[in-house]
Amino acid sequence: MSVSVDEWLKQQGTTMRRGVDTSQMFVDKEQSESYAKYRMKYCDQVYQFIVDYCRETSPDLDLCVDCGCGPGQSTLGFAKYFKKVVGVDISEVQISNAPKHDNVEFKVGSAEKLPFIESGSVDLWSSAQSFNYMPEKE
């Protein structure tokens, strides 16, 4: 028997739902630094699996866009595979905690509007642990 998202959330004891206003999350520097320090990192096999799949249709791997990147944990994992990686996050504080890397650029912005990305130029659009924060319709 299937249940609605709202009912499932209620059963879990939470009201957290995609589409909530997340623009005020991670505005505190200390909170953002803790997130950068303690958020789980992915093993190389995860990136390799994704990259192998991408190479089936786009062998050059020119551009990866990682939306909701926070301080760049998953963004940096793609850097050794793609010519350019762009990490995008709505939180300026999160972006300020992202480490520098030669072929990685970090931008403050929303996943729904990427005016700095040319249409049709993206080989991989990634969203590691942030998709649930994005609005349902936009």
TrEMBL record:
PANTHER family: METHYLTRANSF_11 DOMAIN-CONTAINING PROTEIN (PTHR44942), METHYLTRANSFERASE TYPE 11 DOMAIN-CONTAINING PROTEIN (PTHR44942:SF4). The keyword Methyltransferase applies. This is Methyltransferase domain-containing protein. One of its GO terms (molecular function) is methyltransferase activity. It holds the Pfam family Methyltransf_25. Keywords: Methyltransferase, Transferase. InterPro entries: Diverse_substrate_MTase, Methyltransf_25, SAM-dependent_MTases_sf. It comes from the Eukaryota. It comes from Elysia chlorotica (Eastern emerald elysia). One of its GO terms (biological process) is methylation. Residues 65-137 form the Methyltransferase domain.
